[in-house]
Amino acid sequence: MAHRIPQNVQGRFYVDSNCINCSLCPEIAPDNFRTNHEAGYEYIYKQPDNGREEELIAEAMILCPADAIKG
Questions:
Q1: What's the CA gap between 27 and 24, in Å, rounded?
Q2: Beta-sheet pairing, 69-70 with 33-36
Q3: Least crowded by CB within 10 Å, which of 13, 29, 45, 52?
Q4: Which domains does the chain have, with CATH numbers?
């Protein structure tokens, strides 16, 4: 079973251990996602603080090939 990656900031949205490090989510929502290159995953760097950021995270959730973004 996948678990929440500890590097995610606290809040509604998070990336779980199913992440395959495809880099799609930071391309879609660069203000909210970062990549840990050494560990090989993306994570939520900042929770959304406006509607546009929330829409971009929702888009990343839909397009995530590993279904690793939750919220």
A1: 5
A2: unpaired
A3: 52
A4: 14-70 (3.30.70.20)
| Sequence letter at residue 1 | M
Tell me if 53 sits within 8 A of 37, measured CB to CB: no
pTM reported for the whole predicted model: 0.95
Tens-place pLDDT, residues 22-32:
999 999 999 99
Query: From CA 57, how far away is CA 59, in angstroms rounded?
Result: 5
pLDDT at 1: 86
The mean of the pLDDT values for the chain is: 98
Token digits of residue 71: 């919220």
Beta bridge partners of 58: none
Whole-angstrom Cα distance, residue 71 to residue 38? 25
